Amino acid sequence: MKRYHLTGTVCLLALLAVLAAGCSSPGVPEVTEENTAAEDLAAFVQEAATYAKTAGKDMALAEFGNASGRFSQGDLYVYAYDYNGTLLAHPYESEAVGTDRGNWTDVRGLPVIRIGAATAADGGGFIAYLYPAPENGSIDESAGESYLPKLGYVAPAGEGWWIGSGIYLSDTAGTGREAYPEAVSAMVDLVERGAAYGRDHEKGEAFAGIANQTGEFIDPAGHYLYAYDYNGTLLAHPYLQAAIGSSLIERQDPFGMKNIRALRDTARDGGGFIVFVWPNPDNGNRGELKIGYVLPVDEDWWVGSGVYLSEIVGENA
Length: 317
Prior knowledge:
317 residues; 5-stranded antiparallel β-sheet
């Protein structure tokens, strides 16, 4: 797919318990290149919000909807919604402006617009989701294979409406695995090693290895591996021993997304990235967006892991 270079007002290098109780996860990271990129993204959106308040809503929406305008730089652009979910401006989806997208979800079922609106209404902040990249001046939301992990930032823009923008994790300088923030790259590697381990060992031995709190599937940052079957039954987990053997397929987050079902479906489709809300034990088990990665082991079971958004942006998310 054609990629756009990010130039102009802000030069962005990109970036960027399970059931909570007793889960281990890393703390807030030190300042890194990913943190700087996140700060630049936030500054870009805040600049657009200031412009909206200065220029007025009508002029700002016209500018945000202009694919050649000040706030449209290829993959980097500003979109606008009201708090009822109506799309007010988008440089690559002009045909959808004026429609109700409040219940729109990404390819894995994350209710992105409702999460963005809730975050903006709370003063603004970072979000994460999957989204297709623009190609030939348009975006095809029906092309499921083109969805990529994206870091977003949203902010209130005026009475009754909000704006947002985002950058793809794969826009980071480098190619292949180096294109992702370090925490995400390490997490993907953990899942790949776990899937290979599961294929090379008997199930009982594999489950014991995954559940070992001092084993090879707890990385230095505190990321861990978990395993489920395709009915949503937890097979192995280093911190949820009491839940092993239980089906969690109907577990639902506060926005209505059934996390385990969505993770299971992703694995069944061949694996890949997924974003979902999950309790963060390092933040009082408060729900936080998490970038997950899952892979099938065989026709019976699959493995996964995840990185909390705060690990990438370096603040409470």
